[in-house]
Amino acid sequence: MPLALHTIKPAKNSKRKEKRLGRGNSSGHGTYSGKGIKGQKARSGVGGLKRLGMKQILLRTPKLRGFKSLKEKDQVVNLDKISKYYKDNEVVNPETLKEKGLINSDKKPVKILGRGELTVKNLKFEKVKMSKSVEKLFK
Fold it and tell me: Nearest-CA neighbor of 113 among 87, 82, 84?
């Protein structure tokens, strides 16, 4: 059967049965039909749902908690990776790191972290941030 608007059906169990009000006490929704006793909201002609003000709507909506920074996160490269991919007297900068596949983008900031040991000598670091442990190695 070809796929067309008149052949599409909802997924199984995706549609709930409508709550049938006022069909006798054995249905569970008889007598007052979920409206309580008396009062303006129990009468006919009042909307199906209770009227909510803007404040109640805002209070009921789920909020995203916490803090989301707009500042870009640094791309991280550890010393053990630099030792593996670089040779003596080479320059370490975002362009060479991208060429070697250690970072995704040379436009985003890069930070060198101190995990592992640096076995390569006389490396030049340009346009990269360093953790305090790495800075100690080069001073």
Answer: 82
